[in-house]
Give the backbone structure.
Amino acid sequence: MPQRPSFEALFRVSPNAYLLLDPDLVILDANAAYLELTARSIEEIAGRRIQDAFAADPQFPESTHVDELLDSFARVLRTKALDTLPVIRYSIAVSSGNGAAYEDRYWSATHTPLLDDNGEVIAILQHTVDITELQQLKDSLRSAEPAGQPAQQIEAAIISRARFIQDEGNQLRRLFAQAPGFVCFLRGPEHVFELVNEAYQQLTGHRQLLGKPVRDGLPELEGQGFITLLDEVYRTGEPYTDKGMRALLNRRPGAEPEELYVDLVFQPIVEHDGRTSGIFVLGSDVTEQHRSQQELREYREHLEELVRERSRELLDSESARRTAQAALMQAQKLEAVGKLTGGIAHDFNNMLQIIGGNLQLLRRNLSGDETAQRRLESAVGGVEKGARLASQLLAFASRQPLQPQSVNVGELLGQMSELLNGALGRAVQVDVDVASDLWPVLADVGNLQAAILNLAVNARDAMGDGGTLCLRLRNLSLDAAQLAGQPGADPGPYVELAVIDEGEGMRPEILERAFEPFFTTRKDKNSSGLGLSMVYGFVKQSGGFVVLESDEGEGTTVRVYLPSRVALGQQGGRVAAISEQCDSASASSEQIEPAYASGLRILFVEDDPTLRMLTGEVMDELGHQVSLCESAEAALKQLEQHPFDVLLTDVGLAGMSGIELVREARSRDASLSVVIASGYAVDARDVGLDDLRTMLKPYDIHQVRSLLESIQAERTIAGRS
């Protein structure tokens, strides 16, 4: 059932003027319409008798018919029934610039008794209508009749004006009710609701508001600032406008307050005398717009954050790409330098081979000349030093012979402690940090020790006056993204060896060239500039990689990453076994009678004419039948025309390589013994031949003899079988 308004609310908001008196004609209350009609405030008249509150004009007492008014009240008290005064002349005092003045007014009044349960009058309700203008029109009608103006015309004018005023009022009421926003009118300093439209009722939850002050009708607004603003507008008479004001309203009984956002205008209603009588409130509910704007703002902020995040990702990706590209270019440059260095070392080995071979042949002819023998030994020593240099170059080119095996680097560091302390001196404090359960690596022990010692000595020299050298070992699992700048490195488990010094660090231009062979910043004449190059080549040949980090004045960190895996075979194992095979074959040859009395039939392929001639003479002096070729293509033709026991070829040939020649020759004759002459070890698995031999350059006559005797012994045993 819809809530019915209280009678007090009707009394308060009625547009008709009402006055409430007690039986002694003392004024109890008056509504806003009455106060506006009589230009009085409730404080001026409440508690006073009506004839005192509206005293007669002392100058023209005949204009104030007080007796008629009092007689009507007396009839109501006596009869306890309604009494009407259709017309009563009653002047009232109004304010003016010269003090109080009286206006001659005409009224139509109805006096209604209010009875208690016993039927006694407890109050009188006066309904008053100001008919002064109507009375004046009637007077005008009377005065117009003698002048000949038709009474019907005057009455029609009166009715027309009344209808106009009524239509105007109805129009204003329709505009108020159908206003696009919420509208209300608040009367007096307590902001009493006098008028509210349907939109205002919907906004506030269809509560009974008429006749109630804002504090009573909407108590939840207390403390939200709205009532304070109303007080300020009423006090100053200045309008107030704001947008998007937040309000919490109890729109449903028992529910939590709802959050609303409104645009508001508080417009004071100012009377002719400058007094504020009320406030006209106009506004719009913009909650949905506010929420849409908030969602749009949050979406925009989220979108901006996504853009910022994506921009950061792109910057990080671009930075990572540039870093990986720089690392790749550096690796490619070092690879190119390595290939060049390997080629130079190969040619250098050929020259050493020629020099060394001729010196060994000369040694036979100078056995009685001590001076010549001394000079010969000095020359041989030079050849050996050149061979060591070629070995270092081949290490950088990742072509040195290796004997990889499973190594625990932590244990290896422990075994090297005395060696490191002796090499570094007392000024350098060595701090070793080894992670528990360190994975084993597959590496050549001797070369790994040399690499660690090389890095430690470099760190000592960088620190100058001494300091702390940290050697740190830990396990790492690296994925493809982390290895983006390391071409050739496979994802998987690695052991990181970090060599960290407190030295002066490197400038960027020095850091970029640190791995290049023969590059050094030391002024020491004994510095070859091959230390870091050898480490780089050894680690690359072992399947790992090296990262160099340094800032000028901040020290240097060299990070060596070696793969942790179990090898299927040992790289370079064939090379290591050659000497053993030669020794055992030599021993066997002493016990076994040679099956080849006239020696082996050897096809020797070498593109250097001097070396080809020299080595051919050596093998010929050893009693073998030697055929010489300068290319693989010529050797294949020889193999088609003649049978051979041994194919001995250089690895680097113009056109078809030595390895390709060996593979093709074995496919034609499976019994053919094959040997590769190279400055670096050749893995038999890479060639696809199980019994491939490698003879490392530069080799001497004794190595050639041992190799051929070993082959001869094996072929003799195979022939008997």
